[in-house]
Fold:
Amino acid sequence: MLDATALQQEIGSDQFYGGLLTPKGAQLHVGKMVYGLATRCLEKGVAIFQHQPVINIDKTGEQSWVVTTPQQTIKAKAILIATGGSGPGPFNWFRRRIVPVGSFAVTTEPLSEELCASLFPGNRSYVTSKNIGNYFRLTADRRLLFGGRARFAVSNPRSDLKSGEILRQSLDDMFPQLASSKIDYCWGGTVDMSADRLPKVGEHQGMFYAMGYSGHGVQMAIHMGEVMADIIDGKSVDCPWLTTQWPAVPFHFGKPWFLPFVGLYYKVQDMLH
Ligand SMILES: Cc1cc2nc3c(=O)[nH]c(=O)nc-3n(C[C@H](O)[C@H](O)[C@H](O)COP(=O)(O)OP(=O)(O)OC[C@H]3O[C@@H](n4cnc5c(N)ncnc54)[C@H](O)[C@@H]3O)c2cc1C
Structure:
């Protein structure tokens, strides 16, 4: 990681507000990565069951489980819960420990080469340091992808649209040069927040789990796949996220009724700092 001077040199002193530069930081297209990952899994003989939500899990013996979906039952030697914990299914214990929070993004229409070069000379990925902050980068077809929590709310089509409008406003405030650019896409999804925003890994009633990436799971969830394979094989691993005690979030029973208050708290913090 380089200090502020390197960043200042890259973007020019008149635009400099302070920050840190990670020269080896990279960006990726998550949809393409998931497609590539699934393709490699299939090549290795992994069975993928799409559109089959798990509705029940039964332990039928030592290293013997039966997983039920609406379409079929699947036998397994071991179970790893890696759903983010808050989705539908027999995951009540996890639901009391994971807070589902929406995360949202928009992309502009394709921008001119000149505009891109003047606004983002290093063509890097950027993230602001606020609690309710933003991240942004150019896509391969020169759109600005601009995301953030926007508001502490769940993700659904209506909520995504509302958050998209807030993102549009933040984008305009940060880049007045883009005020006349159209927004072509807006979307959202749910991230699995733990109370301390650190991943949680362990075993509950004989089922292994890895979750709670709190909005930073793209690379970490992939890495944890390898770590969990070793843990399930009984190998000794050095993993900082291993959790032996994982208390429930007080007054949280699955539906995050307190999100607006948490959002307000962080908003005030951002205003004060
Ligand atoms: C808009 C947005 C931007 C983001 N940006 C970044 C970023 O820049 N960097 C970063 O690191 N992270 C980012 N994240 C977070 C990242 O996407 C997650 O941390 C990551 O996807 C977690 O991976 P996972 O495999 O643990 O869970 P998920 O990707 O949530 O996968 C869980 C899967 O379990 C399935 N499932 C749920 N319930 C059941 C059930 N009952 N039966 C069967 N399957 C079930 C779900 O359908 C889903 O496919 C972003 C998220 C959003 C929404």
User: Anything to note?
Assistant: Residues 99-193 form a domain with the D-Amino Acid Oxidase; Chain A, domain 2 fold (CATH 3.30.9.10).
